[in-house]
Amino acid sequence: MNSSTEAVEIPIVEPIDEGPVLALIKPGEEQVRGVVGHYFSPLVELTNWERTATGIAATVDDARLDLDIVDPDVLRISVSQPGLSEAPPTHVVIRDSSTWSGEFRIEGSEAEVHLVTEAMRIVVAKSPFRLEVFRTDGTAVTESLAENGLGSFAQLNDEFIVTRKRPAGSSILGLGQKTGNLDRSGRTYILWNTDVLNPRSLQEFGSGFEPGDPRGDPRSREFDPYYISIPFYCSVDVHGHAAGFFVDNLHKAQYDFGCEGETRICFNGGGYAEYVFVGPDLPSILRRYTDLTGRIKTPPIWSLGYHHCRWHPYTAGDVVRLADTYRKRQIPCDSIWLDIDHMHGYRVFTWNQKLFPNPATMLANLKERGFRSVTIVDPGVKVEAGNSVYESGLDRKAFCLTERGAVYKGQVWPGRTAFPDFANEATREWWGDLNAKHVSIGLSGIWNDMNEPATGDVPDAAMRFDRGQYSHGAYHNGYAMLMAMGTFQGLLKAMPDSRPFILSRAGCAGIQRYAANWLGDSMSRWDHLQMSIPMSLGLGLSGLPFVGGDVGGFGENCDPELLVRWFQAACLTPFCRNHNDAGGVDQYPWSFGPSVEEICREMLDLRYRLMPYLYTLFVEASETGAPIMRPMVWADPHDPKLRKLDDQYMLGDHLLVAPVIEKNAVSRRVRLPHGEWFDWWSGASARGGDLLVDAPLGKLPLYAKAGAVISMWPEAPPSTMGYHPERIDLHVFVPSEDGVFESVLIEDDGATFGYEQGERLKTAFRLIRMGDSLHLEANTEGARYLGFKRTHFRIHLRGVSVPIVETIQADGVRLIWRHSL
């Protein structure tokens, strides 16, 4: 279709005894993309209903409708067709929603049924059928849009469409990894995990656009879809009220926010089970959403460090020399990663013996220098007689099949490849054992790539799952999560006392339980640096807090200015790895001379010194589901300018990071949330609002919130390995106004599961200003861990006319420090 085609209206057709079938093209729908409800049959009449333990079950036309209260502020909606086969399990939701036992009441009338909890009122109109949700204060969560003819739910064969009103001026956030602005309003998005730079992706998703349209360019800021698809989004209205919506379905989908005042969601298959979160704020929605889909486990602290990676045919000697270079140049670094050239002919779980004749010795040498090591593991297994992984997979019936029962074959790095059937539990266990054996020689983590799954030049549609039971669409988007699930169990088996670390390119809802994610194959371009911020923020709002892009960009060539600005933008993102391809120029911190190296070192020093603060945020994410890297709307949803702002971010609640992301820029505008803030570098105070700040090449605009107590290491160690300092520095940003301000520090060994047995210290700080009197209280709970050395704090008062530094003993459970200003 062509975007210039005029809209055509077709009358509604009503077949005998089948209910109304929609065939309406609205103005603006006849475009390259958009959910169009041709011939979909809406649900029309609710004929009977009954109370269940958690809500109601009803008959609507020939379908069964279930409304289940999951929590007082969470509703599960499902529609099923009696007599039809059930959708396969997605493995996404880990909580049994049928176990809720709270109170609710039902209010019925001839025209409507109301389901009421302490937080929400669900309104079900019987004829015509309509489903709406309101908070108990009367504000709307989701309302039907009856005038479009689709009703609340419509279906055609195995596809279904959900429609709802979208309040004017509301912001749409989430959906996983998406290009463009953080606010998804005004566009249509496809949820289908995609190997973005594969030419087939361009043919499938980039065709049909006018020449020069960026939506047809996989390297642009508007191409869609991307690697990670998550059918969860939040809507924030102009009053700051937030609501969340999650569909538990792995099939291909379209989310259409292109029509003013309307949202349309279309899935190509699978069952309709949607969770509605009434909020009314983003933190409570993310907490509830991750109650369902799971949260990150507290990661090993080394994974929060800086990572060196390069697609390059390194030798063992090269790798050790790289490690020595980092130490000689005093640049902090925790790990060195090996890309596909470390393998023998790209065969997974092998080593190239010419490059790495004794990998165990090399890994031991790296560990002696404070480095951990990670290798890439793709899902594609080379089809080859004598390949032990392929032959053992055949023996176990572990590979995906075609409809006729043959092993599906694609064409990726090793050549002809078979793909493990991760929808099958036995296959996941087999894959886990292969990973366990692989890491046993001294590896610390696994990097999963090409797991959309990418099948090269061979279309993936013929690949079926769970020994041929299910179509490709049923598990395509879940493939990476299921791969990570098996890998995670394998790493636990090999290293039961160590926290696993896995990095994944693709993902879906729930992958956060097993893996971190990076942004995939970005380009060394300013627009890709710009895109990395809203893309990471969108993933965090989709339940994936451990994210980050390739510092410097993966493809094409970086330059000195771009590398500096990328290090500044990424040095405080949750995941921080420098990675580029084999054909590009070197972009190591030292590649562009001493001045660039010094700035890169300073940025990494800042990251390592802030490790206590950063690690505390990871623990918080594991407990609440809150993002680590937070959009400005999180700080103040009532500020309309902050809702749309996506070129700066919050690191937790107390630090604001505003990187320079434009070429040749030496200043930038920063918008501070309401309240008082301090320039990190100068200590100058500023109030909420817009600022124009100087940002020469060596400066990262960084602000701390008044009243914050920022915990820092006293120095930047070469790596986190074995580093447990005797002192923690507390940077206290003294507020100019009276009040009580709270901060937290979490300390554990950063490596084992001892925290699950209570070997973790939580120190709650309360900063109290009363006139000229300043009190800092610290209350510590928990048990010390093996290796704990801290005996004192050093307090740095910031934001005062004369900086004050004072060291105090802190080896007990309670501390009170007083100071007169």
Highlighted features:
821 residues, alpha+beta, eight-stranded antiparallel β-sheet, 14 helices, 18% helix
Structure description:
This protein is an alpha+beta fold. The chain has 14 helices and 45 strands. The chain has a nine-stranded parallel beta sheet. Strand 43 and strand 44 form a beta hairpin. The protein is globular. The N and C termini lie far apart (70 Å). The relative contact order is 0.08. The model is unreliable at 1-32 (pLDDT under 50).
Summarize this structure briefly.
With 821 residues, this protein is an alpha+beta fold. A hairpin with a 5-residue loop joins β43 (792-798) and β44 (804-809).
How are the elements arranged and paired?
Blueprint: E1 41-42, E2 46-51, E3 55-60, E4 63-71, E5 74-80, E6 105-108, E7 112-116, E8 120-126, E9 129-135, E10 140-142, E11 153-156, E12 159-165, E13 171-176, E14 188-191, H1 199-205, E15 229-236, E16 242-247, E17 253-256, E18 262-267, E19 272-277, H2 282-293, E20 306-308, H3 316-328, E21 335-338, H4 359-368, E22 372-377, E23 381-382, H5 388-395, E24 409-412, E25 415-418, H6 425-439, E26 445-448, H7 472-475, H8 479-494, E27 502-504, E28 516-518, H9 526-540, E29 547-548, E30 550-551, H10 560-570, E31 576-578, H11 594-609, H12 611-624, E32 629-630, H13 632-635, H14 640-644, E33 649-651, E34 655-657, E35 667-679, E36 685-694, E37 702-705, E38 709-712, E39 727-733, E40 739-747, E41 761-770, E42 773-782, E43 792-798, E44 804-809, E45 814-820
Parallel strand pairs: 20-21, 20-31, 21-22, 22-26, 26-27, 27-28, 28-29, 30-31, 39-43
Antiparallel strand pairs: 1-11, 2-3, 3-4, 4-5, 5-19, 6-7, 7-8, 8-9, 9-10, 11-12, 12-18, 13-15, 14-17, 15-16, 16-19, 17-18, 23-25, 24-25, 32-33, 33-34, 34-37, 35-36, 35-37, 38-39, 40-41, 41-42, 42-45, 43-44
